[in-house]
């Protein structure tokens, strides 16, 4: 399976705070910058900026909720990210198997 890797998407999820935010949004069924900042060691303003990054790559979508926006994870985009990760992982697994085969062949040649 060949999947095109989206660098912007992986840049967004490369940040540990944003990954934690995605975890919280998934477990809580959504949230606002305020509710997320109460569970994270960063300010509400920092959370809002992180949510903006996640929104730009389509991993979350915000809808107005009073004076704030309520964010939820876009499960289709998250599934796309998981497919990309699986594809990249499979590619690296194949490369590492090939490297191991080469190293074993070299080692057998040196033992002869």
**How does the major sheet shape up?**
2 strands, antiparallel
Which secondary-structure class do the elements indicate?
mainly alpha
For this structure, the CATH topology is Arc Repressor Mutant, subunit A
* Number of beta-strand segments: 2
Q: What is the mean predicted local confidence, pLDDT?
A: 91
What general outline do the C-alpha atoms trace? elongated
Q: What is the H level of CATH, i.e. the homologous superfamily?
A: Winged helix-like DNA-binding domain superfamily/Winged helix DNA-binding domain
SSE pattern? HHHHEEH
Uncertain parts? none
For the record, the CATH class is Mainly Alpha
- Total helical elements: 5
Looking at the overall shape, the CATH architecture is Orthogonal Bundle
Question: Number of folding domains?
Answer: 1
Rg on CA atoms, Å: 20 Å
User: Fraction of residues in helices?
Assistant: 55-70%
Q: How big a fraction of the residues is strand? A: 5-15%
Name the strands of the widest sheet in spatial order: 1-2
Terminal CA distance: 39 Å
């Amino acid at each position: 399976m060949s999947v095109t890797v989206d660098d912007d998407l992986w840049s967004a999820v490369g940040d540990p705070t944003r990954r934690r935010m995605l975890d919280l949004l998934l477990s809580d069924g959504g949230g606002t910058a305020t509710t997320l900042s109460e569970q994270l060691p960063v300010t509400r303003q920092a959370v809002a900026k992180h949510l903006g990054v996640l929104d730009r790559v389509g991993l979350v979508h915000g809808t107005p909720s009073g004076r704030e926006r309520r964010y939820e994870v876009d499960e289709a985009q998250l599934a796309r990210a998981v497919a990309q990760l699986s594809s990249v992982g499979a590619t690296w697994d194949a490369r590492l198997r090939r490297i191991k085969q080469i190293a074993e062949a070299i080692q057998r040649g040196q033992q002869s």
